[in-house]
C-alpha cells in the first residue's frame, strides 16, 4: 500500500521502477528533476544544472516552451485525441504527417505514428517483412544491424540490439537478426553474400551511432557505400534518425548531410523535443506502394491506440514551428566546431580515453572505464551541470540547441574540475561513497 507522500508503507521504498537501474541501491541515489527552462533544469535541492544530455537526447528546443504547452492545452481542451484506426483519424495527425512527409528525404513518404522510437522500429520491421511477403520474396526476413547499434528494446529491438548486455538473459529472442561490425563495408558485403541477399529484408543503421556505442560519427563513405550495397542487392535501407532527426546532427536529417535517401526512416525524440511521447516509421513509396497503390487489396495489420495522438501531434507541430522560426538547425551546425574544439583538450587527461564529435551537437568524452565515467558524471553536478553516461564509459554531450556559447565553453571546464576531483580522490584511495562507485553498475544506452 502506498502512503500519501508516495512511499510504500511496508518498506519506505518508492514504487517507481527506474529504467536500466539497480533498484536495491536506489534509495538515496535518486536525482529528482523538477523544472526546466531553456538549456537548464532544476533539481529538488534547488540547484540550477545545465542539461548537457538534453534529457535522453530529446530536449532540442529547450525546456519550458510556453508555446508548446499552449498548443497542447488548446488541443486537450478541444479533443485529447481520436484514434487513427480504420477510417477514423484526427486533423492534427493528418497535418503532422503531411508536414513530416514534406521534410524528410524519403521518396513519396507515408507516415505511421507510434508513441516512441522502439515502437517505430517494431512497426518498421513488421512493415518491411510484410512488404517482402506481398512482393513474392517471403524468405527475406533477416534484418542486418551493426555492433553498438541501438534501436529500442521492445521484442524485435531486443533481438537486434548491437549491445550484447541488452540481449542477454531473456531466453530465446526473435530469429532474423544479423549483426555486423559498425564501420566495415567489406564485412557488410561479406555478411550479405554469406547469408544470401534473397534472405535479407533490410539493413538498419543510425547515421551517427548514439547511445549504444557512445557517439560514433560515420567513417568516410561508409553510409553511402552501405546504401549502394542495399540497392545492389534489393535490400530495404532503413535509417534510424530517432536521435539525429530534426537537427541534432547539424542538418534537419542526417540523411541530407550524408547524401542518403532511405526507404524507411525512424523518428521520435526531437519530433516533439520530448514535450509529449511521439514517434514515427516513415515509409517511402517503394515499400508503402504495396499497401497504398490504387487497387491494392492489402492492409498493414498493425495498430496502436495512441498512433497519431492528437495532443502529441499538436506538440510536434508547435515544436517544428519553433525549430524553423528560430533556425535552430542552423544554430546547431554553426556550433558543432566550437563544441568539439572546446572538448578536444580533455584528451590530455590521463582518465580520458577519447573525445568524439564534430557532427552537430553530438559529442562524447570517453573515460577509462564505466566506474570512472559514473564518478565524473556524479562529480560534475557540483560544477552546475547534469551529465549522464552513455555507451558504457562515455559522458554524453548533446545539449539543447538553445545552449549559449559561454555554456558550451563551460562544459570542458566543468569536466576538468570533476576529473581533478575524481583523480585526486582515487590517488588518495579515499573510501568512496556507494553512489560514487556503485557496487552494481547501471548501464544504459
Ligand atoms: C537511435 C535510437 N533508436 C531508437 C530508440 C528507442 O526510442 P524510445 O526510447 O523512444 O523507444 C532510441 C532511444 O534512445 C535511440 O537512441
UniProtKB/TrEMBL annotation:
It comes from the Bacteria. Its cofactor is pyridoxal 5'-phosphate. Gene3D superfamilies: Aspartate Aminotransferase, domain 1, Type I PLP-dependent aspartate aminotransferase-like (Major domain). The keyword Transferase applies. Transmembrane segments: none annotated. Residues 425-445 are annotated as: Disordered. InterPro entries: Aminotrans_3 (IPR005814), Aminotrans_3_PPA_site (IPR049704), PyrdxlP-dep_Trfase (IPR015424), PyrdxlP-dep_Trfase_major (IPR015421), PyrdxlP-dep_Trfase_small (IPR015422). The keyword Transferase applies. SUPFAM superfamilies: PLP-dependent transferases. Keywords: Aminotransferase, Pyridoxal phosphate, Transferase. PROSITE patterns: AA_TRANSFER_CLASS_3 (PS00600). Pfam families: Aminotran_3 (PF00202). GO terms for molecular function: pyridoxal phosphate binding; transaminase activity. Belongs to the class-III pyridoxal-phosphate-dependent aminotransferase family. This is Aspartate aminotransferase family protein.
